[in-house]
Amino acid sequence: MSSSHRFTVLLTATIGLGLSATLVATTAVASAPAAHGSPGVHSLGDRLFPTLGNGGYDVQDYDLSLRYRPDRTTMAASVTIRALSTQALSSFSLDSVAQRITGVRVDGRAVPFRLDPAQEKLIVTARIPDRRLFDVRIDYVADRSQNPAPPGTTLPPGVDWPIEAWVKTPDGFATFGQPNRAHQFFPSNDYPSDKARYTVRLTVPSDRTAVSAGRLLAKYRHHGETTWIYRTDHPIKPDVLPIAVGRFREIEQTGPHGLPVRSYVTLEKAPNGQTLTEPMELNARQTPAQLAWLEQQIGRPFPYESYGVVGLASAYNGVALETATLSTFGGQLAAPPEDEAPTLVHEMAHQYFGDAVAVRTWDDMWLSEGHARYYERKYAGERGFIDYTAELKTLYERDQSLRDEQGPAGRLKNPGSVLFDTDAPGQLMLVGLNHLVGDATFRTIERTFYDRYRDGVASTADYVAIANQLSGRDLTPYFDAWLYSPITPPMPGHPDWHSTKKA
Ligand SMILES: [Zn+2]
């Protein structure tokens, strides 16, 4: 994720009211005899998002169908989830909100289900033996007009939840699921550590284009509608599944090693009448050159089977999201290249760090945002878009204030800031690490971490262990100070820099 400053202020000011201290994970207690199975837990115990995630199974595959009609916000939908049980189950839950569930089948049999709206859960009753692959098909109606505030957040009267999950555009919509909204799109195990492969089937009017992750497997027309079927080669986490529908110009290019690069830019104009298509295309066409730069930095080929960007005619301008294989941008993609190129590199870097290597918990989010910002600012500095060292110094000087307001990056005070307040501290910490261990070791740490956890998930401890091993030093206190201390630690290489509380 990246955002404009204005958006960040709005968001943190609004969500900063915070998570109620009384919120605790509601974890179902396993009480039934093991022979008959017991309920899967209704939470994975995340500190920032205590209701998120579900236990007792591991999703292997989602097969999602959505039918978009321009004259209504509701969409007939279904998802078939193939999962592997990790215990004998008597029931299990999925994250689900703002959906009208019309039926649930397990291995083809209709089964009882109920909703817990407060916890955003769909609870399914079915007996499943341990270590068994099973299919759950859920038929439902999704509603793009619904944008409920997640559990545990409190907002002032009259203030709407500021994050749009379903992004509205004049010609369609797009999905922004991060951090905890993918289960508005489809019932799922909406947690970054449960990655799965996806088949996405989008039925839209034939004058629209529908895009999603991975390869286009098939496309067929029937009675004025077209169904587009996409499939991913790699497992990805639910919150970065891209789905977008609109009137797009398609731009085909080739990246390093023959990587297919396919981008989509809106044919609509901005609300102020500005043409978006050509300026967006100018930015999108930088993708192969930026991929080559990033591959050279990280020393590894792009993680996925294809890449590209989608540019929306959205008033939701300031944000971009690292949706896997196809990053999603608002109207900002029409900004001048010197402004937008670093953000393009940011979302591209997330494909390695954040997507291919996903975070184990939301407290590990610096692994994603810190790396994305590290490569983004390095690129901006090398291209002469910024004074790299001067910007770093300013960032460092502000760190103590950020820490006071939002908490350290590894122990944030409120969940809303997970997308916005982990990137700068993460970048500073990585720049400092680079200084401490030198360029060659730093690059080896990055490559080793990527190689070991690619297509999986990793925690802060996993990164620290690799840094310690490859540097031959105990850097744990260094990481602990940056991630968990209330006080900004010294900046390696810059003993004259200071970060103090705001007056
Ligand atoms: Zn980001």
Low-confidence stretches: 5-33
Largest sheet: 8 strands, mixed
Number of strands: 23
The CATH C-level class name of the largest domain: Mainly Beta
The overall average pLDDT, rounded, is 92
Shape: globular
Distance between the termini: 30 Å
Helix/sheet category:
alpha+beta
CATH superfamily of the largest domain: tricorn interacting facor f3 domain
Rg over CA atoms, rounded to whole Å, is: 22 Å
Query: Assembly state here?
Result: single chain
- Overall helicity: 25-40%
| Content of β-strand | 25-35%
What would your notes on this structure say?
By secondary structure, the protein is an alpha+beta fold. It has three domains: 12-166 and 179-246, Sandwich (Immunoglobulin-like), CATH 2.60.40.1730; 247-352, Zincin-like (2-Layer Sandwich), CATH 3.30.2010.30; 366-484, Neutral Protease Domain 2 (Neutral Protease, domain 2). Helices cover 27% and strands 26% of the residues. It has ten helices and 23 strands. The protein has helices at 5-15, 277-284, 287-298, 337-352, 366-382, 388-406, 423-437, 439-453, 460-471, 476-484, and strands at 38-39, 57-67, 74-85, 89-95, 99-106, 109-110, 113-116, 121-128, 133-143, 166-169, 172-175, 197-205, 209-212, 215-222, 225-231, 243-246, 248-254, 260-266, 309-311, 320-321, 327-329, 357-359, 456-458. The strands form five sheets. An eight-stranded mixed β-sheet has the order 6-5-9-3-2-12-15-14, with no helix packed on it. A hairpin with a 2-residue loop joins β14 (215-222) and β15 (225-231). α4 packs antiparallel against α5 (366-382) and α7 crosses α8 (439-453). The longest helix is centred in the C-terminal third of the chain and has 19 residues, at 388-406. It is globular and about 65 Å long. The two termini are 30 Å apart. The model is unreliable at 5-33 (pLDDT under 50). It binds zinc ion (ZN).
